[in-house]
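*Target chain*
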Amino acid sequence: MPGGSLFRPGDNCWRVEKADDFSIIIDADAYFSEIRSAMRAARRSIFLVGWDFDAGTTLGPPDVDDGAPRKVGDFILWLAAANPNLDIKILLWSPALLASWLRPSNFPYLLRWKWHPRISVRLDGNHPVGSSHHEKLLVIDNEIAFCGGIDVTLDRWDTRGHLDENPMRRRPSGAPYMAWHDASSMFTGKAVNALSEICHRRWRRARGEESNFDQPAHSSRHTTVRGFSFGPVDLAVARTQPPHVDEPGVTEIERLYVDMIGAARKLIYAESQYFASRIVAQAIARRLAEPDGPEVVLVNPLASDNWLGAIAMDTARARLRESLRRHDEHGRFRMYHPVSATNQAIYVHSKLMIVDNDIVRVGSSNLNNRSMRFDRECDVAFEAGNREDLRMRIAALRNDLLAEHLGVRVDVLVRQSEEAGSMIAVIETLRGLRKGRTLVPYETPDVSDLEKWLADNEILDPEGPEELLEPIEKRGLFRGRLHLPRRRRKPAP
Protein backbone atom coordinates (compact mmCIF):
# COMPACT_ATOMS: atom_id res chain seq x y z
CA MET A 1 0.00 0.00 0.00
CA PRO A 2 1.18 3.55 -0.65
CA GLY A 3 2.41 5.12 2.55
CA GLY A 4 3.31 1.87 4.33
CA SER A 5 1.91 -1.57 4.97
CA LEU A 6 -1.51 -2.18 6.49
CA PHE A 7 -0.35 -5.51 7.89
CA ARG A 8 0.72 -5.59 11.54
CA PRO A 9 2.00 -9.00 12.69
CA GLY A 10 0.65 -9.84 16.11
CA ASP A 11 -2.41 -7.63 15.57
CA ASN A 12 -4.29 -7.96 12.25
CA CYS A 13 -2.21 -10.89 11.03
CA TRP A 14 -0.04 -13.62 12.47
CA ARG A 15 3.01 -13.10 10.29
CA VAL A 16 4.08 -11.81 6.87
CA GLU A 17 6.22 -14.07 4.71
CA LYS A 18 7.50 -14.00 1.14
CA ALA A 19 5.54 -15.98 -1.43
CA ASP A 20 7.65 -16.57 -4.53
CA ASP A 21 4.54 -16.99 -6.67
CA PHE A 22 0.96 -16.33 -5.53
CA SER A 23 -2.22 -17.10 -7.47
CA ILE A 24 -5.97 -16.79 -6.96
CA ILE A 25 -7.93 -19.79 -8.25
CA ILE A 26 -11.59 -19.32 -9.14
CA ASP A 27 -14.04 -22.23 -8.81
CA ALA A 28 -13.47 -25.89 -8.02
CA ASP A 29 -13.01 -26.96 -11.63
CA ALA A 30 -9.64 -25.20 -11.63
CA TYR A 31 -8.93 -25.85 -7.93
CA PHE A 32 -9.51 -29.61 -8.03
CA SER A 33 -7.37 -29.85 -11.16
CA GLU A 34 -4.55 -27.86 -9.54
CA ILE A 35 -4.46 -29.88 -6.32
CA ARG A 36 -4.67 -33.14 -8.25
CA SER A 37 -1.65 -32.14 -10.30
CA ALA A 38 0.27 -30.93 -7.24
CA MET A 39 -0.52 -34.09 -5.26
CA ARG A 40 0.60 -36.30 -8.15
CA ALA A 41 3.94 -34.47 -8.14
CA ALA A 42 4.39 -34.83 -4.36
CA ARG A 43 7.70 -36.41 -3.38
CA ARG A 44 7.63 -36.57 0.42
CA SER A 45 4.46 -35.29 2.04
CA ILE A 46 0.84 -34.26 1.61
CA PHE A 47 -1.00 -32.54 4.47
CA LEU A 48 -4.72 -31.89 3.91
CA VAL A 49 -6.79 -29.95 6.44
CA GLY A 50 -10.53 -29.62 5.89
CA TRP A 51 -13.93 -28.85 7.35
CA ASP A 52 -15.77 -31.46 5.25
CA PHE A 53 -14.55 -34.33 3.13
CA ASP A 54 -16.06 -36.95 0.84
CA ALA A 55 -13.94 -39.78 -0.52
CA GLY A 56 -16.29 -40.13 -3.49
CA THR A 57 -15.42 -36.65 -4.78
CA THR A 58 -13.78 -36.65 -8.20
CA LEU A 59 -10.53 -34.74 -7.87
CA GLY A 60 -10.56 -32.84 -11.14
CA PRO A 61 -13.20 -32.62 -13.86
CA PRO A 62 -15.71 -35.48 -13.56
CA ASP A 63 -14.32 -36.94 -16.82
CA VAL A 64 -10.63 -36.63 -15.84
CA ASP A 65 -8.52 -39.37 -17.44
CA ASP A 66 -4.84 -39.15 -16.52
CA GLY A 67 -4.12 -42.75 -15.60
CA ALA A 68 -4.90 -42.29 -11.89
CA PRO A 69 -8.18 -43.01 -10.07
CA ARG A 70 -10.77 -40.26 -10.29
CA LYS A 71 -12.26 -40.49 -6.80
CA VAL A 72 -10.12 -38.88 -4.12
CA GLY A 73 -10.37 -41.89 -1.77
CA ASP A 74 -8.83 -44.22 -4.35
CA PHE A 75 -6.53 -41.47 -5.62
CA ILE A 76 -4.90 -41.13 -2.17
CA LEU A 77 -4.36 -44.89 -1.95
CA TRP A 78 -2.90 -44.85 -5.48
CA LEU A 79 -0.48 -42.04 -4.57
CA ALA A 80 0.78 -43.93 -1.52
CA ALA A 81 1.26 -47.12 -3.55
CA ALA A 82 3.08 -45.31 -6.35
CA ASN A 83 5.56 -43.54 -4.05
CA PRO A 84 6.98 -45.47 -1.06
CA ASN A 85 8.51 -42.24 0.29
CA LEU A 86 5.20 -40.37 0.46
CA ASP A 87 3.63 -39.60 3.83
CA ILE A 88 -0.01 -38.48 3.71
CA LYS A 89 -1.80 -36.79 6.59
CA ILE A 90 -5.49 -35.83 6.58
CA LEU A 91 -6.86 -33.71 9.43
CA LEU A 92 -10.61 -33.10 9.49
CA TRP A 93 -13.12 -31.50 11.79
CA SER A 94 -14.41 -34.31 13.97
CA PRO A 95 -18.20 -33.66 14.07
CA ALA A 96 -18.38 -33.17 10.31
CA LEU A 97 -16.38 -36.31 9.62
CA LEU A 98 -18.31 -38.48 12.07
CA ALA A 99 -21.47 -37.54 10.23
CA SER A 100 -19.93 -37.87 6.77
CA TRP A 101 -18.44 -41.30 7.45
CA LEU A 102 -21.99 -42.64 7.47
CA ARG A 103 -22.04 -41.94 3.73
CA PRO A 104 -21.50 -45.07 1.64
CA SER A 105 -18.76 -43.23 -0.27
CA ASN A 106 -16.68 -42.67 2.88
CA PHE A 107 -17.04 -45.63 5.19
CA PRO A 108 -14.89 -48.17 3.27
CA TYR A 109 -11.91 -45.82 3.31
CA LEU A 110 -11.86 -45.36 7.08
CA LEU A 111 -10.50 -48.87 7.61
CA ARG A 112 -8.34 -48.94 4.47
CA TRP A 113 -6.57 -45.73 5.48
CA LYS A 114 -6.42 -46.67 9.15
CA TRP A 115 -4.29 -49.72 8.44
CA HIS A 116 -2.05 -48.07 5.85
CA PRO A 117 1.44 -47.34 7.27
CA ARG A 118 1.81 -43.99 5.43
CA ILE A 119 -1.73 -42.62 5.42
CA SER A 120 -2.93 -41.08 8.67
CA VAL A 121 -6.38 -39.60 9.28
CA ARG A 122 -7.14 -37.63 12.41
CA LEU A 123 -10.45 -36.29 13.63
CA ASP A 124 -10.05 -32.96 15.40
CA GLY A 125 -12.79 -32.00 17.85
CA ASN A 126 -10.48 -29.96 20.05
CA HIS A 127 -12.49 -26.72 20.26
CA PRO A 128 -15.18 -25.05 22.39
CA VAL A 129 -18.66 -26.56 22.40
CA GLY A 130 -20.54 -25.39 19.31
CA SER A 131 -17.40 -24.24 17.48
CA SER A 132 -15.80 -25.84 14.41
CA HIS A 133 -12.51 -26.14 12.55
CA HIS A 134 -13.40 -24.34 9.33
CA GLU A 135 -9.96 -24.02 7.66
CA LYS A 136 -9.35 -25.46 4.17
CA LEU A 137 -5.60 -25.96 3.74
CA LEU A 138 -3.29 -28.15 1.69
CA VAL A 139 0.50 -28.24 2.01
CA ILE A 140 2.62 -30.42 -0.29
CA ASP A 141 6.32 -31.18 0.35
CA ASN A 142 6.35 -27.94 2.35
CA GLU A 143 6.97 -26.28 -1.03
CA ILE A 144 3.49 -25.45 -2.26
CA ALA A 145 0.37 -24.49 -0.31
CA PHE A 146 -3.31 -23.87 -0.95
CA CYS A 147 -5.57 -21.74 1.26
CA GLY A 148 -9.15 -20.75 0.55
CA GLY A 149 -12.79 -21.70 0.85
CA ILE A 150 -13.03 -24.98 -1.07
CA ASP A 151 -13.37 -28.33 0.71
CA VAL A 152 -12.72 -31.63 -1.05
CA THR A 153 -16.32 -32.74 -0.83
CA LEU A 154 -19.55 -33.11 -2.78
CA ASP A 155 -21.47 -30.34 -4.57
CA ARG A 156 -18.39 -28.11 -4.98
CA TRP A 157 -17.23 -28.76 -8.54
CA ASP A 158 -18.33 -26.29 -11.18
CA THR A 159 -16.86 -24.30 -14.05
CA ARG A 160 -16.89 -20.53 -14.32
CA GLY A 161 -19.64 -20.88 -16.89
CA HIS A 162 -22.06 -21.99 -14.15
CA LEU A 163 -24.33 -23.45 -16.78
CA ASP A 164 -27.97 -24.17 -16.02
CA GLU A 165 -27.68 -27.69 -17.36
CA ASN A 166 -24.21 -29.14 -16.93
CA PRO A 167 -24.33 -32.95 -17.25
CA MET A 168 -21.06 -33.21 -15.30
CA ARG A 169 -22.36 -31.27 -12.29
CA ARG A 170 -23.79 -34.35 -10.59
CA ARG A 171 -23.50 -36.12 -7.27
CA PRO A 172 -22.29 -39.75 -7.28
CA SER A 173 -25.96 -40.76 -7.21
CA GLY A 174 -26.51 -38.90 -10.49
CA ALA A 175 -28.62 -36.16 -8.90
CA PRO A 176 -27.81 -32.61 -10.07
CA TYR A 177 -26.83 -29.82 -7.70
CA MET A 178 -26.94 -26.04 -8.06
CA ALA A 179 -24.29 -23.90 -9.73
CA TRP A 180 -21.47 -23.12 -7.27
CA HIS A 181 -19.03 -20.18 -7.19
CA ASP A 182 -15.90 -20.47 -5.04
CA ALA A 183 -12.29 -19.30 -4.64
CA SER A 184 -8.94 -20.39 -3.23
CA SER A 185 -5.25 -19.54 -3.51
CA MET A 186 -2.00 -21.28 -4.32
CA PHE A 187 1.53 -20.16 -3.48
CA THR A 188 5.15 -21.21 -3.08
CA GLY A 189 8.12 -19.91 -1.10
CA LYS A 190 8.71 -19.25 2.58
CA ALA A 191 5.06 -18.33 3.14
CA VAL A 192 4.33 -22.07 2.85
CA ASN A 193 6.10 -22.52 6.21
CA ALA A 194 3.36 -20.54 7.96
CA LEU A 195 0.59 -22.81 6.70
CA SER A 196 2.70 -25.88 7.41
CA GLU A 197 3.13 -24.73 10.99
CA ILE A 198 -0.63 -24.26 11.39
CA CYS A 199 -1.22 -27.80 10.11
CA HIS A 200 1.40 -29.34 12.38
CA ARG A 201 0.22 -27.47 15.46
CA ARG A 202 -3.31 -28.73 14.94
CA TRP A 203 -2.10 -32.26 14.29
CA ARG A 204 -0.18 -32.32 17.56
CA ARG A 205 -3.11 -30.94 19.54
CA ALA A 206 -5.57 -33.33 17.89
CA ARG A 207 -3.62 -36.46 18.80
CA GLY A 208 -0.98 -35.38 21.28
CA GLU A 209 1.87 -36.54 19.07
CA GLU A 210 4.65 -35.04 17.04
CA SER A 211 4.53 -34.76 13.28
CA ASN A 212 7.65 -35.96 11.53
CA PHE A 213 8.01 -34.43 8.10
CA ASP A 214 8.52 -30.73 8.74
CA GLN A 215 11.08 -29.60 6.18
CA PRO A 216 12.32 -26.19 5.02
CA ALA A 217 10.44 -24.58 2.19
CA HIS A 218 12.02 -23.76 -1.12
CA SER A 219 10.62 -22.69 -4.46
CA SER A 220 12.06 -25.30 -6.81
CA ARG A 221 8.58 -26.23 -8.01
CA HIS A 222 6.85 -24.13 -10.61
CA THR A 223 3.46 -24.89 -12.10
CA THR A 224 1.23 -23.26 -14.65
CA VAL A 225 -1.85 -22.16 -12.73
CA ARG A 226 -5.39 -21.93 -14.06
CA GLY A 227 -5.96 -18.68 -12.23
CA PHE A 228 -4.66 -15.18 -11.63
CA SER A 229 -0.93 -15.20 -10.98
CA PHE A 230 0.52 -12.22 -9.11
CA GLY A 231 4.14 -13.36 -8.95
CA PRO A 232 6.15 -12.70 -5.78
CA VAL A 233 4.28 -10.98 -2.94
CA ASP A 234 4.62 -10.41 0.79
CA LEU A 235 1.84 -12.61 2.11
CA ALA A 236 0.05 -11.96 5.41
CA VAL A 237 -1.48 -14.95 7.19
CA ALA A 238 -4.44 -14.09 9.44
CA ARG A 239 -6.25 -16.46 11.80
CA THR A 240 -9.28 -16.81 13.99
CA GLN A 241 -8.85 -19.05 17.01
CA PRO A 242 -11.38 -19.25 19.87
CA PRO A 243 -9.97 -19.40 23.40
CA HIS A 244 -9.91 -23.02 24.50
CA VAL A 245 -8.10 -24.82 27.33
CA ASP A 246 -4.56 -23.35 27.21
CA GLU A 247 -4.94 -21.64 23.81
CA PRO A 248 -5.66 -17.89 23.83
CA GLY A 249 -8.23 -16.35 21.53
CA VAL A 250 -6.95 -14.94 18.23
CA THR A 251 -8.97 -12.33 16.29
CA GLU A 252 -6.54 -11.36 13.53
CA ILE A 253 -9.12 -12.00 10.80
CA GLU A 254 -11.66 -9.65 12.37
CA ARG A 255 -9.08 -6.91 12.82
CA LEU A 256 -7.83 -7.26 9.26
CA TYR A 257 -11.39 -6.91 7.90
CA VAL A 258 -11.92 -3.73 9.92
CA ASP A 259 -8.56 -2.28 8.87
CA MET A 260 -9.10 -3.10 5.19
CA ILE A 261 -12.52 -1.45 5.26
CA GLY A 262 -11.04 1.56 7.02
CA ALA A 263 -8.21 1.88 4.46
CA ALA A 264 -10.43 1.87 1.35
CA ARG A 265 -10.57 5.02 -0.76
CA LYS A 266 -12.93 4.22 -3.64
CA LEU A 267 -14.19 0.65 -3.68
CA ILE A 268 -14.58 -2.40 -1.46
CA TYR A 269 -15.56 -5.53 -3.41
CA ALA A 270 -16.38 -8.65 -1.41
CA GLU A 271 -17.76 -12.11 -2.02
CA SER A 272 -19.03 -14.04 1.00
CA GLN A 273 -21.38 -16.87 1.78
CA TYR A 274 -22.90 -14.81 4.60
CA PHE A 275 -23.23 -11.22 5.79
CA ALA A 276 -24.00 -11.42 9.51
CA SER A 277 -21.04 -9.88 11.37
CA ARG A 278 -21.86 -6.91 13.59
CA ILE A 279 -18.22 -5.83 13.68
CA VAL A 280 -17.91 -5.78 9.89
CA ALA A 281 -21.27 -4.01 9.53
CA GLN A 282 -20.15 -1.35 12.00
CA ALA A 283 -16.95 -0.77 10.05
CA ILE A 284 -18.94 -0.43 6.82
CA ALA A 285 -21.46 1.90 8.48
CA ARG A 286 -18.73 4.34 9.44
CA ARG A 287 -17.43 4.52 5.88
CA LEU A 288 -20.93 4.93 4.44
CA ALA A 289 -21.55 7.89 6.74
CA GLU A 290 -18.56 9.75 5.29
CA PRO A 291 -19.39 12.09 2.41
CA ASP A 292 -16.33 10.94 0.45
CA GLY A 293 -16.18 7.31 1.57
CA PRO A 294 -15.84 4.27 -0.70
CA GLU A 295 -18.51 2.29 -2.49
CA VAL A 296 -19.15 -1.17 -1.04
CA VAL A 297 -20.26 -4.00 -3.35
CA LEU A 298 -21.06 -7.31 -1.66
CA VAL A 299 -21.89 -10.46 -3.63
CA ASN A 300 -23.88 -13.03 -1.62
CA PRO A 301 -25.91 -16.10 -2.49
CA LEU A 302 -29.64 -15.57 -2.83
CA ALA A 303 -30.22 -17.74 0.25
CA SER A 304 -28.28 -20.15 2.45
CA ASP A 305 -28.02 -23.72 1.22
CA ASN A 306 -29.32 -25.23 4.47
CA TRP A 307 -32.17 -24.58 6.90
CA LEU A 308 -29.85 -23.60 9.76
CA GLY A 309 -28.17 -20.94 7.66
CA ALA A 310 -31.53 -19.69 6.42
CA ILE A 311 -32.76 -19.18 9.98
CA ALA A 312 -29.60 -17.71 11.44
CA MET A 313 -27.55 -16.08 8.68
CA ASP A 314 -30.19 -14.95 6.22
CA THR A 315 -32.24 -13.32 8.97
CA ALA A 316 -29.19 -11.55 10.40
CA ARG A 317 -28.30 -10.36 6.90
CA ALA A 318 -31.75 -8.82 6.49
CA ARG A 319 -31.49 -7.07 9.85
CA LEU A 320 -27.98 -5.75 9.13
CA ARG A 321 -28.96 -4.54 5.68
CA GLU A 322 -31.87 -2.56 7.06
CA SER A 323 -29.67 -1.14 9.80
CA LEU A 324 -27.06 -0.02 7.24
CA ARG A 325 -29.69 1.86 5.23
CA ARG A 326 -29.77 4.47 7.99
CA HIS A 327 -26.08 5.14 7.46
CA ASP A 328 -26.08 5.01 3.65
CA GLU A 329 -27.50 8.42 2.80
CA HIS A 330 -25.08 8.68 -0.14
CA GLY A 331 -26.22 5.38 -1.70
CA ARG A 332 -22.83 3.68 -1.75
CA PHE A 333 -23.74 0.19 -0.46
CA ARG A 334 -25.12 -2.58 -2.67
CA MET A 335 -25.69 -6.31 -2.16
CA TYR A 336 -26.18 -8.55 -5.19
CA HIS A 337 -26.83 -12.21 -6.00
CA PRO A 338 -25.54 -13.89 -9.18
CA VAL A 339 -28.09 -15.74 -11.30
CA SER A 340 -27.75 -17.93 -14.36
CA ALA A 341 -29.05 -17.43 -17.88
CA THR A 342 -32.49 -18.72 -16.84
CA ASN A 343 -32.55 -16.76 -13.56
CA GLN A 344 -31.49 -19.72 -11.41
CA ALA A 345 -29.49 -18.84 -8.31
CA ILE A 346 -25.71 -19.41 -8.38
CA TYR A 347 -24.51 -20.25 -4.89
CA VAL A 348 -21.70 -17.98 -3.66
CA HIS A 349 -19.36 -19.87 -1.33
CA SER A 350 -16.19 -17.82 -1.93
CA LYS A 351 -14.64 -15.73 0.84
CA LEU A 352 -12.78 -12.95 -0.95
CA MET A 353 -12.28 -9.21 -0.51
CA ILE A 354 -10.55 -6.69 -2.79
CA VAL A 355 -9.94 -3.12 -1.59
CA ASP A 356 -9.37 -0.59 -4.38
CA ASN A 357 -6.46 -1.85 -6.49
CA ASP A 358 -4.41 -2.27 -3.33
CA ILE A 359 -5.29 -5.35 -1.27
CA VAL A 360 -6.54 -8.88 -1.97
CA ARG A 361 -7.54 -11.41 0.67
CA VAL A 362 -8.96 -14.92 0.36
CA GLY A 363 -9.49 -17.73 2.82
CA SER A 364 -12.02 -19.67 4.83
CA SER A 365 -13.61 -16.83 6.81
CA ASN A 366 -17.15 -15.64 6.11
CA LEU A 367 -18.57 -12.26 7.04
CA ASN A 368 -20.34 -13.69 10.08
CA ASN A 369 -19.71 -13.69 13.82
CA ARG A 370 -18.51 -17.29 13.94
CA SER A 371 -15.65 -16.60 11.53
CA MET A 372 -14.54 -13.56 13.52
CA ARG A 373 -14.23 -15.18 16.96
CA PHE A 374 -15.82 -18.62 17.34
CA ASP A 375 -14.59 -20.95 14.57
CA ARG A 376 -11.01 -21.67 13.59
CA GLU A 377 -10.21 -19.92 10.28
CA CYS A 378 -7.25 -19.03 8.09
CA ASP A 379 -6.99 -16.28 5.44
CA VAL A 380 -4.11 -14.94 3.37
CA ALA A 381 -3.73 -11.43 1.97
CA PHE A 382 -1.27 -9.28 0.05
CA GLU A 383 -0.82 -5.60 -0.86
CA ALA A 384 0.22 -4.01 -4.13
CA GLY A 385 2.32 -1.39 -2.36
CA ASN A 386 4.11 0.75 -4.94
CA ARG A 387 4.05 -1.95 -7.62
CA GLU A 388 1.90 -0.77 -10.51
CA ASP A 389 1.97 -4.23 -12.08
CA LEU A 390 0.28 -5.67 -9.01
CA ARG A 391 -2.30 -2.89 -8.97
CA MET A 392 -3.17 -3.68 -12.57
CA ARG A 393 -3.47 -7.40 -11.79
CA ILE A 394 -5.71 -6.71 -8.80
CA ALA A 395 -7.97 -4.54 -10.94
CA ALA A 396 -8.02 -7.25 -13.60
CA LEU A 397 -9.08 -9.88 -11.04
CA ARG A 398 -11.96 -7.76 -9.75
CA ASN A 399 -13.07 -6.81 -13.26
CA ASP A 400 -12.96 -10.43 -14.36
CA LEU A 401 -15.10 -11.55 -11.41
CA LEU A 402 -17.66 -8.81 -11.96
CA ALA A 403 -17.79 -9.45 -15.70
CA GLU A 404 -18.37 -13.15 -14.99
CA HIS A 405 -21.23 -12.38 -12.60
CA LEU A 406 -22.78 -9.88 -15.02
CA GLY A 407 -22.44 -12.13 -18.04
CA VAL A 408 -20.48 -9.57 -20.09
CA ARG A 409 -17.00 -9.37 -21.58
CA VAL A 410 -14.31 -7.83 -19.41
CA ASP A 411 -13.56 -5.12 -21.97
CA VAL A 412 -17.20 -4.02 -21.86
CA LEU A 413 -17.04 -3.66 -18.08
CA VAL A 414 -13.72 -1.81 -18.21
CA ARG A 415 -15.02 0.62 -20.81
CA GLN A 416 -18.12 1.32 -18.73
CA SER A 417 -15.95 1.82 -15.64
CA GLU A 418 -13.81 4.41 -17.36
CA GLU A 419 -16.90 6.33 -18.40
CA ALA A 420 -18.91 6.05 -15.19
CA GLY A 421 -16.33 6.42 -12.42
CA SER A 422 -18.64 4.42 -10.13
CA MET A 423 -18.68 0.63 -9.93
CA ILE A 424 -22.25 0.62 -8.64
CA ALA A 425 -23.30 2.70 -11.64
CA VAL A 426 -21.47 0.26 -13.94
CA ILE A 427 -23.20 -2.74 -12.38
CA GLU A 428 -26.60 -1.08 -12.57
CA THR A 429 -26.04 -0.26 -16.24
CA LEU A 430 -24.68 -3.64 -17.31
CA ARG A 431 -27.05 -5.85 -15.38
CA GLY A 432 -29.97 -4.47 -17.36
CA LEU A 433 -28.40 -4.58 -20.83
CA ARG A 434 -29.66 -8.00 -21.81
CA LYS A 435 -31.51 -11.00 -20.50
CA GLY A 436 -29.51 -13.84 -19.08
CA ARG A 437 -26.79 -14.23 -16.53
CA THR A 438 -26.47 -11.20 -14.30
CA LEU A 439 -26.42 -9.76 -10.77
CA VAL A 440 -29.74 -9.25 -8.99
CA PRO A 441 -30.08 -6.66 -6.20
CA TYR A 442 -30.77 -7.95 -2.70
CA GLU A 443 -34.30 -7.41 -1.46
CA THR A 444 -34.94 -7.52 2.27
CA PRO A 445 -37.42 -10.34 2.96
CA ASP A 446 -40.10 -10.44 5.61
CA VAL A 447 -38.85 -12.33 8.64
CA SER A 448 -40.86 -14.05 11.35
CA ASP A 449 -40.81 -13.09 15.02
CA LEU A 450 -38.87 -16.27 15.81
CA GLU A 451 -36.26 -15.52 13.16
CA LYS A 452 -35.87 -11.96 14.45
CA TRP A 453 -35.38 -13.26 17.97
CA LEU A 454 -32.76 -15.78 16.84
CA ALA A 455 -30.87 -13.12 14.91
CA ASP A 456 -31.10 -10.48 17.62
CA ASN A 457 -29.82 -12.87 20.26
CA GLU A 458 -27.20 -14.58 18.07
CA ILE A 459 -28.29 -18.04 19.16
CA LEU A 460 -26.84 -19.76 16.09
CA ASP A 461 -24.05 -17.31 15.20
CA PRO A 462 -22.31 -16.38 18.47
CA GLU A 463 -19.35 -14.00 18.56
CA GLY A 464 -17.36 -16.34 20.75
CA PRO A 465 -17.53 -19.23 23.23
CA GLU A 466 -18.09 -16.87 26.13
CA GLU A 467 -21.30 -15.61 24.54
CA LEU A 468 -22.89 -19.04 24.77
CA LEU A 469 -22.78 -18.64 28.55
CA GLU A 470 -24.20 -15.11 28.64
CA PRO A 471 -27.81 -14.50 29.65
CA ILE A 472 -30.07 -13.95 26.63
CA GLU A 473 -30.74 -10.35 27.63
CA LYS A 474 -27.02 -9.52 27.23
CA ARG A 475 -26.75 -10.89 23.70
CA GLY A 476 -27.99 -9.38 20.50
CA LEU A 477 -27.23 -8.28 16.99
CA PHE A 478 -27.98 -4.66 17.85
CA ARG A 479 -27.21 -4.61 21.56
CA GLY A 480 -25.82 -1.37 22.93
CA ARG A 481 -24.84 1.63 20.88
CA LEU A 482 -23.26 1.34 17.46
CA HIS A 483 -19.57 1.71 18.29
CA LEU A 484 -17.83 2.47 15.03
CA PRO A 485 -14.10 1.88 14.57
CA ARG A 486 -11.94 4.79 13.63
CA ARG A 487 -11.06 5.09 9.99
CA ARG A 488 -7.42 4.45 9.28
CA ARG A 489 -6.67 6.86 6.47
CA LYS A 490 -3.90 6.38 3.99
CA PRO A 491 -2.39 8.89 1.61
CA ALA A 492 -3.47 8.93 -2.00
CA PRO A 493 -1.07 7.24 -4.41
The first helix runs from residue 28 to 40.
